[in-house]
Specification:
This protein is α/β, with parallel strands linked by helices and 274 residues long. The protein has helices at 15-23, 31-34, 60-70, 83-91, 154-163, 178-187, 198-208, 212-215, 241-258, 260-266; strands at residues 10-12, 38-43, 75-80, 97-101, 117-126, 144-147, 170-173, 193-196, 218-234.
Length: 274
């Protein structure tokens, strides 16, 4: 997934929600009918963008979606699922959107006019390592940990594809919490370097290593790509996706103008990207 450095989620519509979606288009609906629409948002665990469901800190992207769609009497249900699976479900219309995607990640998806954040990728290693990222070739002697289904940049994606079968060069983490797994492997010296967004890496590593000296074992070893716009991208298979994208695009601007966006971001130690 093109998760770059600052935002993300997924909107899922399960069978009941899909049925409501197909029979109750958003445009022109009154609040009573709209209340039957449920958008289930989902993604792999990628805090602070999307965190623990049914908690006070579900992730700032989740909170943005909840507030924006609540104004239209549309309910949000948030779940964690593997990212590669989320893309598959969204493309076929079994979920309504993935969050934190780039346009190059899924060109066929429906995107809001206004982005939901900026995301870029960096390399992280242990502080005792002398390795620093220079260019793709500098990875040749490193065991790089990546997440299944993620798209990074064209050059790194090609490198991963070419070396996917080489256990000395690429390790792929699967499941709902790939970064948690990769950080553990890095701490144990079982991988050399991992790739992740700055905000997510430092947030998750802090949660895993409550003692400050443990978190200081990690260093940023180079930037792969500058931050780029990231979006909640809606399913091309759902007729109402353009309407949902429009609602979100307008809604995030309203949250920004009212100051609510800054309050949401502050809960996670973040500031507005604009």
């Amino acid at each position: 997934m093109y998760k770059y450095a600052i935002l993300f989620i997924t909107v899922v519509i399960f069978p009941l929600a899909i049925s409501a979606n197909n029979s109750l288009p958003v445009s022109g609906q009154d609040n009573l009918n709209r209340s039957k629409v449920i958008l289930t948002i989902a993604a792999d665990h990628w805090c602070p963008f999307n965190c623990l469901p049914n908690s006070d800190y579900p992730g700032y992207m989740v909170e943005i979606a909840q507030q924006v769609f609540a104004e239209h009497n549309i309910k949000i249900s948030y779940q964690i699922i593997p990212w590669s699976r989320a893309l598959q479900l969204c493309r076929t219309g079994r979920i309504s959107a993935v969050v934190g995607g780039y346009k190059s990640d899924a060109p066929d998806f429906i995107y809001p006019k206004n982005e939901q954040g900026l995301i870029g990728f960096s390399f992280f290693t242990l502080d005792k390592s002398y390795w620093r990222y220079q260019q793709i070739d500098s990875l040749n002697n490193q065991l790089l940990a990546v997440a299944d289904g993620y798209a990074y940049t064209d050059s790194l994606d090609r490198y991963i594809a070419i070396n996917q079968g080489d256990a000395k060069r690429i390790y792929t983490a699967f499941g709902n919490k790939p970064l948690t797994e990769n950080i553990a492997l890095l701490e144990q010296g079982l991988i050399d370097v991992l790739i992740e967004t700055d905000a997510v890496f430092w947030y998750v590593s802090k949660q895993l290593n409550q003692q400050e000296e443990q978190q200081e074992n990690f260093i940023l070893a180079g930037v792969l790509s500058p931050a780029k716009p990231a979006y909640i991208a809606f399913s091309p298979a759902i007729a109402e996706s353009k309407e949902y994208a429009s609602i979100l695009s307008e809604g995030i601007e309203q949250l920004r103008a009212s100051g609510e966006l800054s309050l949401i971001l502050a809960k996670y130690g973040l500031v507005d990207w604009q």
